[in-house]
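Researcher: Re-running this chain for the archive, since the previous output was lost when a drive failed. Same request as before.
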Amino acid sequence: MAHLELTALLVREYQPAIDFFVRALDFELVADEPSLTTDGRPKRWVVVRPKGAGAGAGLLLARADGETQMALVGQQFGGRVGLFLRVDDFEAAYARMRTHAVAFLSTPRTEPYGTVAVFRDCEGNHWDLLGPAT
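Model: Regenerated structure tokens:
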């Protein structure tokens, strides 16, 4: 059996991204360890994931390395929604995120698959916040 364990998300700096995911999105910090690039330069192995997600569904927060990667920070999905955060309690998550000044690009709306609102993460990538279907 196979599963998708991590998705790399380019960030400018580690700490602001960690703060955003842990505080605003209520993720857990799973790993923050020193590591090395393939050519021996220092970096960190930083993994966050939604609380209760188990061993899967994590994000590897990868600090952009070089001009090409820096240009892609916040644009990994070409301006489209590229990540989808499903929550059990949409109203509580929405309120917490607004308290932490998360930028919502749409107001909540009801769709057949649940309540949804589009937001930007700390780097500008677009996400759907998804609540249960009614």
